């Protein structure tokens, strides 16, 4: 049996709950995913119609039991008992919540299996006078791999027509096609340790076309003392990026965590700090203009507030404005942790969305959503629900620093990493993934993909299985049918195709972008 509870600060409230059995990883046959990505981030005058027609559980009358809220105080919470749950299955839920005696409050939903601790599975900042949408879920038996996920959003059907110079169809022509690149970038972080390390470079380049630098671009590295700029290592790493036709994220311009702020900045007056920040922006963006395809502007601003304490509540807004003035084409991101990883009272999906709206109201363009994704044991259903709410912003979503805590063994890390990657890749609003797995002589931050000789660990095997096998179309061979056509379904991206007919070979390329219709390609021989 499992207890489903709602925890909150002491206040009166009302709610409606809908629970849905989403999918099972233990199914013997493939079942098309019927998960509903609908989400609402604006408070509603009345609750919107329930998902799944109410699902397997719908109630307005739960049992109230005393539990500890997020502050440790005892409060009466609505509680529901769930029985006969299926192992390895994802359960999704949604709830409409309205608070009565305060203007707003953080409401969290938790699950508590028998004789185990309660775990948060969803949260919302509920408001007075209107209904707020809470969405979440849980994976029953978290060591199971939720494999029944639909990747149809990443693929499209193609028909290649082969015709001769007179426009007549050519049946029986030999067709060979291969995918050159995919349109879903997956990369990993590198550090200076890759420079001159040929085995490391060979391993990296076989798998990745995207990267981000660990610390080398951060302010405390490029200007350790006032006015003493040092881009030597960054320049060397950018040569590696350019030489190998990689794309790189800019991480980061500023970091709100005071631990990573240079000592010489801490005692500055506000005007002095503003001048130093302006110099930082101008120095970096003029030197590497248009080189980084994303920029994390003020890292982890929901958890920390060094610049806000020094410069006021509009500090981040001014950073965005200054960077946009310096380079209007720069793609500027928010970047934060504990948005998809777990419940966090400081940094939750509603606070993230509110921050985006405040910046937009201030006149700046936030062009992307950065989710650091430093996981312990992942909750795919919670992750999916958060992504649904973020998708309402209609912006590119990136998982920017994916890893799994080193508290787990290698095999368990691999299981969890695969869950995270599959969940992200299957979500239609996620545009890319960056891993946080650079190899250094002392190991890795949390997750290594290889040993020190660049032989795959179990986590590396997961990467190879997904990137090199499952998530690419690979090479296909066949012949045109009686209508002179060849049909296939492939992952989105760039393709090379060769046609052999009457001892003549014709080569061509084409791009496969998102679309629900079949893409038609005509090749003349």
Strand content: 25-35%
N- to C-terminal distance: 66 Å
| Helical residues, percent | 10-25%
Q: Main sheet?
A: 8 strands, parallel, barrel
Tally of contiguous helical segments: 11
Radius of gyration based on Cα positions: 25 Å
The shape, in one word, is globular
| Secondary-structure-derived class | alpha/beta
Overall number of strands = 27
Low-confidence sequence ranges? 9-13, 22-32
Describe the strand arrangement of the main beta sheet, using strand numbers: 12-13-14-16-18-19-21-22
* Average pLDDT, all residues: 90
Family: Belongs to the glycosyl hydrolase 10 (cellulase F) family.
Signal peptide: 1-27
Domain GH10: 171-466
Protein name: GH10 domain-containing protein
Describe the fold and architecture.
The chain is an alpha/beta fold and 525 residues long. Helices cover 23% and strands 34% of the residues. The protein contains 11 helices and 27 strands. The chain has helices at 198-207, 219-222, 232-243, 263-266, 270-287, 306-311, 315-326, 349-361, 380-391, 410-426, 458-470, and strands spanning 2-7, 13-24, 57-59, 63-68, 74-82, 89-99, 104-113, 119-127, 132-140, 155-163, 174-182, 186-190, 210-213, 247-250, 254-255, 292-296, 298-299, 332-336, 368-371, 374-375, 397-404, 430-435, 475-479, 485-491, 493-501, 504-512, 519-524. An 8-stranded parallel barrel has the order 12-13-14-16-18-19-21-22, surrounded by 4 helices. The longest helix is centred in the middle third of the chain and has 18 residues, at 270-287. The chain is globular. The protein starts with a strand and ends with a strand. The model is unreliable at 9-13 and 22-32 (pLDDT under 50). Keywords: Carbohydrate metabolism, Hydrolase, Polysaccharide degradation, Signal. Residues 171-466 form the GH10 domain. This is GH10 domain-containing protein. Residues 1-27 form the signal peptide.
């Amino acid at each position: 049996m499992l207890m489903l509870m709602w925890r909150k600060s002491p206040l009166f409230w009302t709610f409606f709950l809908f629970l849905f059995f989403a999918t099972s990883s233990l199914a013997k046959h493939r079942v098309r995913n019927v998960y509903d990505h609908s989400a609402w981030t604006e408070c509603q005058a009345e609750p919107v119609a329930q998902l799944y027609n109410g699902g397997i559980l719908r109630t307005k009358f739960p049992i109230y039991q005393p539990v500890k809220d997020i502050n440790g105080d005892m409060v009466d919470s609505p509680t529901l008992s769930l029985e006969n749950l299926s192992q390895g299955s994802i359960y999704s839920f949604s709830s409409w919540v309205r608070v009565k005696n305060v203007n707003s409050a953080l409401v969290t939903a938790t699950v508590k299996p028998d004789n185990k601790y309660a775990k948060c599975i969803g949260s919302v900042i509920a408001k007075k006078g209107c209904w707020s949408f809470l969405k979440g879920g849980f994976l029953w038996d978290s060591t199971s791999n939720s494999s029944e996920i639909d990747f149809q959003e990443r693929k499209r059907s193609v028909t290649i027509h082969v015709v001769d110079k007179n426009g007549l169809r050519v049946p029986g022509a030999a067709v060979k096609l291969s995918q050159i690149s995919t349109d879903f970038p997956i990369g990993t972080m590198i550090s200076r340790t890759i420079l001159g390390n040929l085995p490391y470079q060979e391993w990296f380049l076989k798998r990745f076309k995207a990267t981000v630098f660990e610390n080398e671009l951060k302010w405390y590295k490029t200007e350790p003392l006032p006015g003493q700029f040092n881009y030597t290592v960054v320049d060397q790493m950018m040569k590696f990026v350019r030489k190998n036709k990689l794309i790189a994220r800019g991480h980061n311009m500023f970091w709100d965590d005071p631990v990573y702020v240079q000592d010489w900045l801490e005692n500055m007056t506000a005007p002095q700090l503003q001048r130093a920040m302006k110099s930082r922006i101008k120095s970096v963006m003029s030197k590497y203009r248009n080189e980084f395809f994303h920029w994390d502007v003020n890292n982890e601003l929901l958890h920390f507030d060094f610049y806000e304490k020094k410069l006021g509540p509009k500090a981040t807004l001014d950073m965005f404005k200054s960077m946009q003035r310096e380079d209007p084409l720069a793609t500027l991101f928010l970047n934060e942790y504990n948005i998809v990883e777990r419940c966090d009272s400081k940094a939750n999906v509603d606070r993230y969305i509110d921050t985006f709206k405040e910046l937009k109201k201030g006149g700046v363009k936030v062009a992307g959503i950065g989710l650091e994704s430093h996981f312990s044991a992942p909750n795919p259903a919670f992750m999916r629900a958060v992504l649904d709410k973020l998708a309402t912003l209609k912006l590119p979503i990136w998982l920017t620093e994916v890893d799994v805590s080193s508290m787990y063994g290698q095999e368990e890390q691999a299981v969890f990493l695969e869950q995270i990657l599959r969940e992200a890749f299957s979500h239609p609003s996620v545009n890319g993934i960056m891993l946080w797995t650079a190899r250094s002589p002392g190991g890795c931050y949390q997750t290594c993909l290889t040993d020190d000789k660049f032989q795959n660990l179990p986590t590396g095997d997961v990467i190879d299985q997904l990137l090199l096998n499952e998530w690419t179309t690979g090479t296909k061979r066949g012949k045109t049918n009686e209508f002179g056509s060849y049909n296939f379904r492939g992952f989105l991206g760039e393709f090379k195709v060769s046609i052999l007919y009457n001892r003549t070979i014709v080569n061509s390329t084409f791009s496969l972008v998102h679309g629900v219709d079949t893409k038609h390609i005509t090749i003349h021989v």
